[in-house]
Amino acid sequence: MSAERGIGDQADTLRQMARNAKHSSQTSDNSGQLATQHSIRVISVTSGKGGVGKSNIVANLAMALASQGKKILIIDADLGVGNLDVLLGLSPQFNLNHVLSGEKGLAEIIVEVAPSIKLIPAGSGIQEYTSLGQHEKLKLLDELDMLEEDFDIMIIDTEAGISENVTYFTVAAQEILVVVTPEPTSITDVYALIKLLATRYSEHHFKVLINMARDSEDALEVFRKLANVAGRFLDISLDYLGCVVRDERLIDAVKKQKAVYELFPDSDVSNCFTTLAKRIIENSRQTHLKGNIQFFFRRYLESSSGSGA
Ligand SMILES: Nc1ncnc2c1ncn2[C@@H]1O[C@H](COP(=O)(O)OP(=O)(O)O)[C@@H](O)[C@H]1O
Ligand SMILES: [Mg+2]
């Protein structure tokens, strides 16, 4: 059979391992009672094409979730044009490249965005690291293990489109959030992405967020269009997560290198993020468990060590 099938099988096996690890991760606390180990939610934010607002959504959603008491780890996994640091007015000295090359530990490259939000800045050219040694992989996994305790939700800002990098990050996450705008090209491009993830990687559940909508009616109309085509041709389920309105204040905030949620907390666009954050927190109980943070990074490491093949 094809290599594609092989990846699918491997993913299934890893998922099962992750699930087993979760189920066996019960420990006794001091009172002798069974306590379930803390587990992190991993959400990947992706889109069919660039410029639809992914990075802004990741940044502002992180803030909205944090203001509801969640501890957030953002990974800027846009290996092409990772720019969350710029968007947030940060200038980190180190990034993922330094970790993968062995110069830095993961904990050393994390920067603070706000008290409850940390960021792992992107590195470019990660694809060049064709072979990470077993030792480095284990070290990274150990470091991630320590991080997992510190966060409730990890949000990954991925590259747009259907490159290998995107699919690896996305398939590794527990939840896939696709961002779509009312533009026809955005809808056709996201359809192509969903189709690829469904047919090649057996991903069947997607949360959809409509950005730059005029209002909620407009957003629902876009969602219906996407659901119509996708539902007709693909065996998938699309959950409408909600919308973010088009707002000039977001553009102002980008220019000032601040999150709009912070700069204009009472604006319509910030209210959208508050609503989305609440919905994401409410959703947690229904979340289909696919893996944990280690699982995510296993996939990530496989992608960076296997890309030479
Ligand atoms: N809700 C919005 N309202 C107005 N402009 C937006 C909105 N979302 C995104 N934009 C515009 O789109 C640009 C690209 O957003 P960005 O988050 O960098 O996209 P991506 O990460 O998908 O490439 C922003 O700089 C901003 O000008
Ligand atoms: Mg971006």
What features would you highlight for this structure?
single chain; 309 residues; alpha/beta; Rossmann fold; eight-stranded mixed sheet; two-stranded antiparallel ribbon; 13 helices; 10 strands; 48% helix; disordered N terminus; disordered C terminus; binds adenosine-5'-diphosphate; binds magnesium ion
Describe it for me?
The protein has 309 residues and is an alpha/beta fold. It has one domain: Rossmann fold. It is built from 13 helices and 10 strands. It has helices at residues 3-23, 54-66, 84-87, 96-100, 106-109, 134-148, 164-172, 184-201, 216-233, 248-255, 260-263, 268-283, 293-306, and strands at 26-28, 34-36, 41-47, 72-77, 111-114, 117-120, 153-158, 175-180, 205-213, 237-245. The strands form 2 sheets. An 8-stranded mixed beta sheet has the order 5-6-4-7-3-8-9-10, with helices on both faces. It has a two-stranded antiparallel sheet with strand order 1-2. Helix 8 links the parallel strand 8 (175-180) and strand 9 (205-213). Helix 8 crosses helix 9 (216-233). The protein is globular. The two termini are 18 Å apart.
